[in-house]
Amino acid sequence: MIQPIVGKLRKRFIFDLTLSMGLGTAAAYAYWYGYHLKAIDRQEQFYLKLEREKLSQK
């Protein structure tokens, strides 16, 4: 008689869940620190430049 495979689906589910959470977190950090904060900094620099130009024209 062949022994039934017990717990394999549960182990695979836990592995898939852990891997997806880890990769999702890594991707979120990469986006936040690699793109988002730099874009916000560029936007702030642009608006500071506009404000300085506006003040220098008066």
From TrEMBL:
Keyword Transmembrane: yes
Pathway: Energy metabolism; oxidative phosphorylation
Matches recorded under InterPro entries: Cyt_c_oxidase_su7a_fun
GO BP annotations listed: mitochondrial electron transport, cytochrome c to oxygen
One cellular-component annotation, GO: mitochondrial inner membrane
Positions of transmembrane segments: 12-32
Superkingdom of origin: Eukaryota
Keyword Phosphoprotein: no
Location(s) in or outside the cell: Mitochondrion inner membrane
Membrane topology annotation: Single-pass membrane protein
UniProt keyword list: Membrane, Mitochondrion, Mitochondrion inner membrane, Oxidoreductase, Transmembrane, Transmembrane helix
Any one GO MF annotation of this record: cytochrome-c oxidase activity
Family listed: Belongs to the fungal cytochrome c oxidase subunit 7a family.
Function: Component of the cytochrome c oxidase, the last enzyme in the mitochondrial electron transport chain which drives oxidative phosphorylation.
Protein name: Cytochrome c oxidase subunit 9, mitochondrial
Source organism per UniProt: Collybiopsis confluens
